[in-house]
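User: My instructor asked us to take a sequence, write out its structure as tokens, and then describe one feature of it. I'm not sure where to start. Here is the sequence I was given:
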Amino acid sequence: MLLCVVTVSATAQHLQLTANNGVPAGVQVHLSSVNGGKDTVLTADARGRIVLPASGYPMTIAVHNMRYGKATDTIGGRWPKVMWLEPETIQEVVVTGQYGARTADNAVQKIEVIDRRKIEAMAAQNLKDVLTNQLEIRMDNDPILGTAMSMQGSRRYGADAKILIDGVPVTGKLNGAVDLSQINLANIERVEIIKGPMSVSYGTDAIAGTVNLITRKQVANKSELYAGTYYETPGTYNITAGGGIRGGAHSLRIDGFRNFFGGWSPGRGASFLENTPQLADTGRWMLWKPREQYQAAIQYVYSRGKTSLNYKSSNFYEIITNRGMPMLPYGEMAFDNRFLTTRLDNALYLNQEMPKGAHINAFVAYNAYKRVKEDIANDLTTLTETKDPALQDTSKYSEVNSRATYATANKDAKLDYEAGYDVNVQYANSTQITDREQRMANYAVFASAEYRPFSQVTVRPGLRLAYNTRYNAPLVPSLHAMYKPGNFTLRASWARGFRQPGLKDLYFDFVDINHNIHGNTDLKAESSDNWLASAGYAVKQGEANWRFNVSGWYNDVRDLITLVLKPGGATNEYWYQNISHFVTKGMQVNADVQVGKWSASAGGSCMGTYNQLSETLAVPAFSYSPEVRGSITRTFPWHNLSVAAFYKYTGRAVVYILNSDTNTPQQSRMGSYHMADVTVSAKVWHQRITLAGGCKNLFDVTNILSGGGDGSAHSSAATTAAVGMGRYYFVKTEIRLHGKK
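Assistant: Let's start with the prediction itself. The structure tokens for your sequence are:
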């Protein structure tokens, strides 16, 4: 939903533009005197403000802008006036997997966009927060490893989805997954999601989908400065700050944040001030571990004519503290763990516009990740710490990426194409890797073309050919098609996806009193075939903009890399093997509507996961799990006041595992739960200050049933999984100052 309020001050000839999707800086207004005279075109400043002529009234005003739609009205005097701008269908611009920037409606792939407006409405602080309400995406929370996600019903959290920032893969997977809570959104403009393989364009890991975060780059004004705070009652205290300057062809941005979370366990409750008396050290251990994060980022952009250069650098640091319970019998000692994570990201981008709609996009990036585990004996009487060097562990991973494409993007041409190369070199240094250090390189070329035999039909075949220094890389083809007659959009695709064996899968070597796990250098790459079809319909009826979409998918994954007991090996010796196979399928339905100051969205999905035991035992071939989501937003003209509510139901997930003791199938499941958030926000002082607050996890969810058993009081097999920290509240403030346009 989009609204714009136009106010004429009674004491000064000013026109104030405001909109609930951000300050409408740079919007042009056409002024025409009803009594005749020269037309005038004025541009809103950084605050959406326009200085009007002193005479010439009554006057017609007209706004025609791609972002805000178009409208006309008449100013007849000096009294305040409100004008609502009802936009045409909102067109989100996307870049993921595209030959050039284009609207999501015109992309051959079905792309979901979470823009900055929605990120702020959700009060999302990191990637975990913003993906929680998405259909076909589920989260897994680990107190030490962080939050991982799965897409399209995959049981392997983190392994089947590619996460990119401005097209560069995120480095630093633990247990096969990137911790989503480490990816802050302070300088993110939007998040683009493609469900289904994008391996032709982005290579390994894009079996179930791709998530690409687009950072803020250009500085819209001569100078910008912002600072913000965010507080949650379980004990979260976040601070963000940054700014930028622009001069001629040069612009520079600096962003930084510090996030602090004090930890939480059930029974602690949530309040703005926790003053309940506590016995000494009885609350040391926490289910949700305390963590502290710091990040600083700098981005420089040079843009002149048809050439654009962009360099960005980001440094992230995190401390997670796992405090143990005091040791019996006297409680004077406790054993703690501390996990220190450092992530360094550097990238240099080039965009060169060429004749006849062609352009070159290229980048080279270096990403480094380091994680240190410290084991500490803590004397609780003297508060001294003793570290055992023999128990410390340090793991380092780094990647060098280089990618370049040459593409044409002419919307009226029958044929556009893209060709490029992709180079990825990975390094690992860890005590849990064979010979301590290992290296793997992947070199690939890829190409695709969009052929439009008719104006309403687009067909896009693609192919990726790669060479890997450690395994035989597969040939990866894809075929996408779109038919768009009028208000309808029909899409269909078949794509091959793959996931290469990681250095851990190939060279893992971890033996201690509890573990005996080894890699396997003979592993093959996992591969998948994904079929996807969708139908969409968009229509405007009076003041209402309606959108409907239904889609279905089928994903068949082969040569799944799994940890299994090694035949002929030592007792409890495990290694990685290509032995498993799984299939997922599902359907999703969505509806969106915008009517004046209201916007609402609702959807549902059902995902089915293949039970491989059904091939030999009497269990269902597929287990199904439903999801339902919804959101509603109401905007008021007074200080851009906005009230939003978000809801998601995650249905029970069931799988069947083999009980090794009885050699019979056993049901393992994840319980269902409801999550809902409510936020209220307003912008004051000419939209310089944003105030927001609300309630998250309205249904007070903490732990849910997980694992086997029937969930009864006498079932020892039933366990729980942490989902949320119960019902809690948040407040957010932000101030933004702008220089001249």
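For the description part of your assignment, you could build on this observation: The chain is about 5% helix and 60% strand. Try explaining in your own words what that tells you about the chain.
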